[in-house]
Design goal:
This protein is of the alpha+beta class. The chain has a domain at 58-160. The protein has three helices and seven strands; from the N terminus they run αβββββααββ.
Length: 161
Amino acid sequence: MTFKKTSVVASLMLSTALLVGACGDKDEITKDVTKNDTSNDIEDSAPGENPDDVSKFEFSKFELEVNYPDQEEAIDVNYEEKQDATDAEYRNVTENLDETGETAFENLRAPLETLQLKEDMTDEEILSRVVKAFNIEDNYTLIEADITWANGEEQKVTAKK
């Protein structure tokens, strides 16, 4: 009977040692080894939580270039939602803006919300909304919008004069 008690106690001790050893140190420090450039990312406050609700758009990426006769890329917008952050760049020569990161997104928030783009819209509807939302003057020579919808489909809308 003592032999059985000894083997049970030994088994319990071995199991406990393995369990404690497998848990490891909870204060481990992890390093970003992916070398991703996150300098322009707008960080969420907590994983899976986004108080600013930046993912309310039906697109995950929106790029816009507007040229005028005397100024190429007078308006240049790059907006991209990612799983854990949002990248934004906004340059508008007529409004004297050249921003990146959170500042760019704050300046883009109103025009992007005004767009209310839907995947089933025609190119003409999209173009009309882009002109209105970004206050594009009628003397433009090129408007080019590249949209990546939430489902991954891409659409390019171009207008030349």
